[in-house]
């Protein structure tokens, strides 16, 4: 695995973005129509950038380049789901294959014999990050099946209720550690790129994301870490802080369900609270289930995680 490139200084981009007026909430309906129906932009789309930074996520309409990558990568994703060594990822009573880093792709995003991951969503990421290439992580293959979620033995009743009623909403990178299972910032994913691999109805366990939650997390964690050097953040217990931030987000940020089809994609800000909604009563999906491949490369350190774009 090649070393991840140094993440560029993006302060200038952040300043530029901060100086631009953000899209008012009243205009979001227009953005959604544009996202669903408009042809993909050929050049940088400032409207989409503003949508991403305002809401903490954005959608990319069907892209033949990405659709080609999905088609060529699908056999490897199916094989990963069936592989005996990945059986440990089947959870929630057999209704969720979590599949973290289960796709055997290389740093270009290609599986054996397949093309590198590419398309407008990838171009968008490069524009925001100021890169022309990055080291893609082995992707997560997340598959949800009818009936999600079912209780599992390793899950408390309260944890199951949180999964069922609150989408198991979480922030990536805050890992449990120690005998008291407290949470610490241990991973610094640059972004979450979701790429559907199978057709599914919108109520087939869509992603749930709390719009604007990335700025709540940024503010709360910035205030908390302000007197601590970044290389020591990994040892700061953030459990209570995180729970308080989550409560604020549930009270103040709108919850949005995000569903997409193969050839489309969505990008979620790394600081955005998100989870998986339950499988709807009338939901339907192809034989593969609701299969989404997620890239979450860890490209920067703690300071980039908190302060970068
Ligand atoms: Fe997540």
Question: In terms of topology, how is this protein built?
Answer:
Blueprint: H1 11-19, H2 28-37, H3 46-55, E1 57-60, H4 64-82, E2 90-91, E3 96-97, H5 120-129, E4 140-144, H6 157-166, E5 174-177, E6 182-185, E7 191-196, E8 207-210, H7 213-225, H8 239-252, E9 255-258, E10 265-269, E11 274-276, E12 290-295, H9 302-307
Antiparallel strand pairs: 1-10, 2-3, 3-4, 4-12, 5-6, 7-10, 7-12, 8-9, 8-11
Helix pairs in contact: 7-8
Fe (ii) ion is lined by residues 170, 172, 274.
Mean pLDDT level: 87
SSE pattern, N- to C-terminal: HHHEHEEHEHEEEEHHEEEEH
Report the oligomer: single chain
Radius of gyration: 19 Å
Which class in CATH terms?
Answer: Mainly Beta
CATH architecture, by name, is: Sandwich
Write a structural description.
- There is one protein chain.
- With 309 residues, the protein is of the alpha+beta class.
- The protein has a single domain, classed as Jelly Rolls (Sandwich).
- The protein has helices spanning 11-19, 28-37, 46-55, 64-82, 120-129, 157-166, 213-225, 239-252, 302-307, and strands at residues 57-60, 90-91, 96-97, 140-144, 174-177, 182-185, 191-196, 207-210, 255-258, 265-269, 274-276, 290-295.
- A seven-stranded antiparallel sheet has the order 1-10-7-12-4-3-2.
- The longest helix is centred in the first third of the chain and has 19 residues, at 64-82.
- Residues 1-42 have low confidence and may be disordered.
- The structure holds fe (ii) ion.
- Fe (ii) ion binds next to loops.
């Amino acid at each position: 695995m090649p070393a991840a490139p140094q993440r560029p200084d993006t302060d200038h981009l952040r300043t530029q973005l901060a100086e631009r007026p953000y899209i008012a909430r009243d205009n979001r309906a227009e953005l959604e129509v544009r996202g669903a129906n408009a042809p993909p932009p050929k050049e940088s789309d400032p409207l989409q950038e503003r949508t991403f930074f305002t809401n903490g996520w954005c959608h990319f309409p069907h892209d033949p380049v990405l659709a080609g990558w999905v088609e060529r990568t699908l056999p490897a994703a199916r094989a990963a789901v069936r592989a005996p060594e990945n059986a440990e990822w089947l959870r929630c009573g057999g209704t969720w294959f979590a599949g973290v880093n289960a796709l055997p792709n290389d740093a270009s995003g290609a599986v054996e014999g397949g093309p590198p991951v590419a398309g407008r969503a990838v171009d968008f990421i490069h524009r925001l990050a100021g890169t022309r290439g990055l080291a893609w992580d082995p992707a997560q293959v997340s598959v949800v099946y009818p009936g999600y979620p079912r209780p599992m033995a390793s899950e408390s009743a309260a944890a199951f209720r949180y999964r069922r009623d609150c989408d198991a909403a979480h922030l990536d990178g805050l890992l449990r550690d120690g005998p008291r299972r407290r949470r610490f910032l241990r991973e610094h994913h640059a972004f979450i790129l979701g790429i559907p691999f199978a057709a599914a109805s919108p109520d087939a366990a869509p992603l749930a994301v709390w719009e604007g939650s990335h700025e709540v997390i940024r503010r709360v964690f910035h205030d908390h870490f302000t007197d601590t050097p970044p290389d020591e953040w990994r040892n700061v217990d953030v459990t209570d802080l995180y729970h308080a931030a989550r409560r604020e987000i549930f009270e103040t940020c709108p919850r949005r369900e995000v569903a997409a089809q193969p050839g489309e994609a969505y990008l979620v800000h790394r600081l955005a609270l998100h989870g998986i909604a339950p499988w709807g009563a009338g939901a339907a999906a192809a034989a593969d289930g609701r299969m989404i491949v997620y890239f979450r490369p860890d490209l920067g350190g703690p300071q980039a995680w908190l302060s970068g774009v």
